[in-house]
Amino acid sequence: MRTWVSTLAGGAALAAIATSSVFAQDEAAPQPEAEETTAAEGASFDEAFPQMVSGEVVQGDLSAPGPLVQSWTADNAAALIDVIEGIGAEGLDMLDYDLQALKVSLASGPSEELDKLASKNFVWLVEDLRDGRTPMDAREQWFVVDPDRDTFRTGDLLTEALESGDVAGTLAKLNPTHPDYARLREELANTPATEKAKRKLIRANMDRWRWLARDLGKQYLITNVPEYQLRLTVGDKIISTYKTIVGKPGRTATPQLAETVSGVVFNPTWTVPQSIVKGEGLGQRVLNNPAWAKRNGYKATKGANGWITVVQQPGPGNSLGRMKLEMPNRHAIFFHDTPSRHLFAKDGRALSHGCIRTERALELAITMAILGKGATKDEAVEIATSGKYTKVMIEKKMPAYITYFTMASDIDGEMKTFKDIYGRDAPVLASLDKPRVGNRSNVIDDEVIVIENDPRAGG
Q1: Are strands 308-312 and 298-302 parallel, antiparallel or unpaired?
Q2: Secondary structure (3-state) at 415
Q3: pTM of the model as a whole
Q4: What is the DSSP letter of 344?
Q5: Is 345 helix (H, G, I), strand (E, B) or coil?
Q6: Which of 213, 263, 337, 438 could serve as 361's disulfide partner, Cβ 3.0–4.6 Å?
Q7: Residues 163-217: tens digit of each pLDDT
Q8: Which of 151, 174, 145, 154 is nearest to 56 (CA)?
Q9: Terminal CA-to-CA distance of the chain, rounded, Å?
Q10: Please, what's the b/e burial string for 102-121 (b: 16 or more CB within 10 A of its CB; e: otherwise)?
Q11: 61 to each of 157, 167, 376, how far by Cα in Å?
């Protein structure tokens, strides 16, 4: 079952411009396979990209949340016990909850003790299903702020479950809506108990979906770093896929983020970091060799204090290529093109300084400009081919998720295991063997590693 795959591979929006000279930049690069770049027979632009506006951001109820201890009937308590006994289907462990104590308390009938015990276990289930069981200290280079804690407040959910009598249904609506979570749950159900390592890996990756917002939105970019793939997704259907080059292991590893694309920069400049200008002597070389500098697009300015600034001008040899996506964040991570397109032919593509280089980047940039209504098709093509630095701000800002799944559906919809290139599985897997952590903080305290981007790295 191809849950993620749309028949509109490549996007009908690009059918009208695929033969344009705008893509002459890729002549020297390996050509993408036909199924990645051609639209479905007869598909129109409007069919591929319907007029979709993401729903309003839910700010959460501003009233006081419901209390965390409430009265339980015998039926509701029995329903809670049923949920705990079946929680293994969601990749959680029923041993994390007070199952036996609940059964003993229920046998004595409704009481203050049952209210406290059942409420506590319901709260634990909410925390694990909504926020993920993995504590923050086991989430390496994870910087995603999950809005679900504010949207689905624990006390309100408890009130809803007890008033409706639907304890299981209230908890079930916390599950991630992305189709891959359901695929992993199905994979877990079909994996024998004897395959312990595989089952644990499935559980770890189910939990990673809970670290994200339950609903990713109507249209978004999502990249799975170990897969080296970026997806443009509309309504959880893949519209187009792009190979990626990601950060090298170590301090240049690409972090996990949820950011917003606010614009597209066509024909970007690259302001060279001082570690290269001074540390590698590039500044002096540019000043001393104008002919070489001109061939490589470098312009240098030397201030009165002797400080040298070097900017690489737009052009086919620019280290950022022909585009970058404007995605402000404190990590200085963004998606961009590269003139070293031969690197996309490699299987292992952890080669960059942290930013994500994208195959067929100009196609992506034009699509983003059109989808965000920052430009029409004709305007986007004209800007892209002008050779001039142009920033196109987009009206419909699009979420971009940089994720790290070592088991997931690949771009063909098949469940696959990916190499743990940064070694981020170990702490998550280890946390599954430890007792659940109560009162877990959602404060991200991992080190923010801001790296001076060197888009030349690896290529």
Answers
A1: antiparallel
A2: strand
A3: 0.86
A4: G
A5: helix
A6: 337
A7: 999 999 999 999 999 999 999 999 999 999 999 999 999 999 999 999 999 999 9
A8: 151
A9: 37
A10: beebbeeebeeebbebbbbb
A11: 12, 21, 39
CB 348 within 8 A of CB 215: no
What letters, b where the CB count within 10 A reaches 16 and e where it falls short, cover 129-140? Answer: bbbbbbbbebbb
Instruction: For residue 289, give the amino acid letter.
Output: N
Beta-strand relationship, 390-403 and 323-326: unpaired
Tokens 């305007």 belong to which residue?
379
Buried b (16+ CB within 10 A) or exposed e, 181-201: bebbbebbeeeeeeeeeebbb
Give start and end residues of each alpha helix (H) in 242-289. Answer: 274-277, 282-288
Q: Helix, strand or coil for residue 306?
A: coil
What DSSP line would sit under 224-242, residue for residue? EGGGTEEEEEETTEEEEEE
Residue 177 structure tokens: 């809506």
Helix (H) / strand (E) containing 336 = strand 335-336
Angstrom CA distances, 135 to 144, 327, 441, stand at 14, 28, 8
3 state SS of 296: coil
Q: What is the pLDDT of residues 314-357, one digit of tens each?
A: 998 999 999 999 999 999 999 999 999 999 999 999 999 999 99
With contact defined as beta carbons under 8 Å apart, do 367 and 232 qualify?
Answer: yes
Q: What is the pLDDT of residue 24?
A: 46
Residue 437's alpha-carbon distances to 127, 303, 441, in angstroms, are 10, 55, 10
Lookup: tokens for 403: 């994720």
How many residues comprise the chain? 459
| The pLDDT of residue 287 is above 50 | yes
Sign of CA dihedral 447, 452, 454, 455: positive
What strands lie across the sheet with 298-302, from one edge to the other?
270-271, 308-312, 298-302
Residue carrying structure tokens 């104590």? 101
Q: Indicate the DSSP class of residue 58.
A: P
Residue whose C-alpha is closest to residue 396's, from 257, 193, 260? 260
| Nearest Cα residue to 458 out of 309, 361, 356, 363 | 356
List the structure tokens of 125.
């289930």
